[in-house]
Design a protein that fits this description.
The protein is α+β, with helices and mostly antiparallel strands. The chain has 6 helices and 10 strands, in the order βαβααααβββββββαβ. It has one domain: Phenylalanyl-tRNA Synthetase, Chain B, domain 3 (3-Layer(bba) Sandwich), CATH 3.50.40. About 45% of the residues are buried.
């Protein structure tokens, strides 16, 4: 299991930070009809109840944006993924379909407002992860984004380097159809409230759609 720690930089920027990680054995698939029925239902609900200006006011999204500012990043240029996903749907652009594990994590991010890191656990190097702040010119290849400037972004690092930020995860540890073990990290920059529910939602969706027993949850701070 993983030992996840928080750097002093993050503790200073966000004293109330709480985290939860779900580790589970999984079977991934290219597409899951039941999951997409849930995604489409949420999309209709979001569009009917939310205005664009409401998105950044969601507590989890607002808290993540504030941490970006405190760490030196402009959240309007480098949007947290939960915010970016909601904005995409509000603009009438369909959510991209990748595979069941990625789509599942995106649904939890959309519902909860948390920017959630979803990793192929077998690609993570070592058993220790630390949440720190990106440095100038620190190498990081965002999924589908090429080289990403992570200076000032919160970033999880394994023994080799950065694997995930709230804006984008790294190509090196991304999930794919061969993924057998998932590590999903929920970042509670808004504190404890809602964290347990989001982690539980990941477990329930894994049970329903990824041939999993839901795995186990690790809480850290």
């Amino acid at each position: 299991m993983y030992n996840i720690t928080i750097s002093e930089e993050i503790k200073n920027a966000c004293p109330i930070f709480k985290g939860a990680a779900v580790y589970a054995e999984v079977t991934n698939t290219a597409f899951c009809e039941g999951l997409w029925e849930e995604i489409n239902a949420f999309t209709k609900e979001l569009i009917s109840t939310t205005q664009p200006e409401d998105i950044k006011l969601h507590p989890a999204i607002a808290a993540t944006r504030e941490v970006y500012k405190r760490c030196g990043k402009d959240p309007s240029r480098y949007r947290p993924s939960a915010e970016a996903l909601r904005r995409r749907l509000i603009r009438g652009i369909d959510l991209y379909q990748i595979d069941t594990l990625v789509d599942l994590i995106n649904l939890v991010s959309l519902r909860s407002g948390y920017s959630i890191g979803g990793f192929d656990a077998d690609k993570i190097q070592g058993s220790n992860l630390e949440l720190g702040v990106g440095r100038a010119e620190e190498p990081f290849e965002g999924i589908g984004r090429g080289v990403l400037n992570i200076e000032g972004l919160p970033v999880y690092r394994d023994a080799i380097g950065g694997i995930g930020t709230p804006t984008s995860d790294n190509e090196r540890t991304k999930m794919d159809l061969d993924t057998k073990h998932i590590l999903a990290i929920v970042n509670g920059y808004s504190g404890q409230e809602g964290l347990r529910e989001a982690a539980g939602m990941i477990q329930e969706l894994l049970k329903k759609y990824a041939s999993s027993d839901g795995g186990e949850i690790i809480y850290f701070e």
